[in-house]
Amino acid sequence: MMMMNGEATEAELFLNCADMSVLERQRAHLNHHHYPGFFSNSSTINGGDIDGFLASAGLDLPAVYGYTTVHGDARISVTPGNITTESGNFKKRKFGCVETETKVCNEKKKMMMMMMNREAAVEEEEEEEKSKVTEQSNKSIMMMKMKNKAKKEQNSCSNDSSKVTKDSQRTDYIHVRARRGQATDSHSIAERARREKISERMKFLQDLVPGCDKITGKAGMLDEIINYVQSLQRQVEFLSMKLATVSPRLDFNIDDIFAKEVVSAPMTNLPNTVMPPHMMVNSGYPHEMVDSGYVHFNPMQQVVASSDPLSCFNNLYSSLGV
Amino acid sequence: MQPTSSMNKEFLKKWQMGLQIFRPSIDNTSVSERKRAIKLSADVAMASLRKGTTCWSRALIQKTASEDNFLVRQMLSGIKEETLINKKLPKVMCHRKIVRRSKKILMRRKSRSAMEEVAAKAKKLVKRKTQGLRNAVPGGEFMSNNVLLIQETLDYIVSLQTQVNVMRSIVDAAAAGIER
């Protein structure tokens, strides 16, 4: 993750929270909450290696842990099976803490990881979680090490059938316990972990892509996802064309920008979606309507605008002769 | 996860900054040139929100750099170096006919049961779809495993949603302004 010093980003805001304490808390929580015999090995290794890491990692880690803190703080009290609610974008969390942290260690998909943590454990049994959490807690060590060397690839994370040693410089191994009644060789364990990861992510995609809840199976979902992505790309094309025709000098005056702030609620458009009522609430209408002089966006107007997204394209199509 | 208002604002800011680059030379342009300017600056704005952390954003920046290098350089203005713009992962080239033929021979050798055949067909279908997804997402060909592909797709979809929302509200505002 490349965070520039001068830029105020979300992660830097989070940096002000106590970073190390999150990890310590999580580790302590894990130690006496879960199965001590099983976890003590990994948790001490966690302790040893991670402390060594934080000293050496410099800028990288704090930012990573920074991301955990806002959500991680609230999650410390979560045990698997408990449901807690949290402010912000996220819905239920039923997840163990360590997985939060480890997922976040992935430098690329921080926010996506949050989403995944939220939903990933919903159907899991405890045994699954056992093996998974060790895998990923130990994976986090591997991942943090990799981060300092190779910043891009995360293929190494998928190789989780190795064992952890205490020496942080040699190759790391991960203790993995196979689930009951399933093959135990390293390849299948690795494959199974990969498959589970993929299905986790697909669940998030189901939430994101409208109309995907009824579809089961990878092929159908992938189909929907591809269609959605392509439709979004087409919309961008047509919107830019429309904008080009509407404003010959590319001058959108600042009042438009104020209006944009008014219309801050997401309007992901599909012809069959109706604006859910709560979205109108969080747009902060009243005071900003006074500011933006002649451009008023009131809730009704917004609903109208968003419920009719494709008609403007129809006009555009006909005018372009498409 | 839905696009947040802060993402919308950042995108708008960067997009306006990109459009500023075109303003001086805007007078005699055609609709298609303006559209191209709008779209390219919007794409770079969307990709630069991720600050080089995702594969698709880098690939998108590279793509627009190949179309309008000047714009990209101005918009990124040293935050990302040229190296980031020019870095590429090697694509795996495979000669499809040969691969297909050898696969057919392998399949002939294996003795299959009914269930295996169904499973094999399902796998083929999924593979085809993932290939389609790779074509849809910018930089998809460089994502070596499916997990990464799906993650990038997630992020890409969210960014596209912000882009579409902002652009649509601007269009509506501009259209409303004109009607008056």
Written description of the protein model:
- The complex is a heterodimer of chains A (322) and B (180).
- Chain A contains 14 helices and no strands.
- Chain A is an all-alpha fold and 322 residues long.
- In chain A, helix 5 runs antiparallel to helix 6.
- Helix content of chain A is 61%, strand content 0%.
- Chain B has one domain.
- The longest helix of chain B has 34 residues, at 146-179.
- Chain B is elongated and about 70 Å long.
- Chain B starts with a helix and ends with a helix.
- The model of chain B has no long low-confidence stretch (mean pLDDT 82).
- The chains are: A mainly alpha (322), B mainly alpha (180).
- The interface between A and B is large, with 74 and 71 residues.
- Chain A: Pfam families: HLH.
Percent range for β-strand residues of chain B: under 5%
Mean pLDDT of chain A: 54
Secondary-structure content class of chain B:
mainly alpha
Largest interface summary: A-B, 74 and 71 residues
Main sheet makeup of chain A:
none
Radius of gyration of chain B: 21 Å
Give the strand tally of chain B: 0
Poorly predicted runs of 5 or more residues of chain A: 1-19, 34-168, 264-322
Individual helix count of chain A: 14
* Helix and strand pattern of chain B: HHHHHHHH
In angstroms, what separates the terminal alpha carbons of chain B? 36 Å
Which series of helices and strands of chain A comes N to C? HHHHHHHHHHHHHH
Low-confidence stretches of chain B: none
Q: Look at the helices and sheets of chain A and give the structural class.
A: mainly alpha
Over the alpha carbons, how many angstroms does the gyration radius of chain A reach? 24 Å
The main sheet of chain B comes to: none
Shape descriptor of chain B: elongated
Helix content of chain A: 55-70%
Secondary structure tally: strands of chain A: 0
- Count up the domains of chain B: 1
End-to-end distance of chain A: 42 Å
GO molecular function (chain A): DNA binding; DNA-binding transcription factor activity; protein dimerization activity
GO cellular component, one term (chain A): nucleus
Main location (chain A): nucleus
Keywords (chain A): DNA-binding, Nucleus, Transcription, Transcription regulation
